[in-house]
Amino acid sequence: ALSGDAAQAVVELEDQLSRIDAQLADPSAWKEERGRAVELWQQRAGVLGALVDVHTTRAAMASF
To answer: Pick from 17, 43, 44: which is nearest to 9 by CA?
Structure first.
């Protein structure tokens, strides 16, 4: 189980991920702007990394 703070962080990160995915799914959001798709994919990777960090931290704390 996640603490309240960790759960809130996960919800916020998942919301960010949803917004990024929606933009990636809509080429009109990035097709005209050079490099925008790359920027969105980099943001997505960062958010996924942050989600892993939250869960890894929780798992490490649970072992104590």
So the answer is: 17
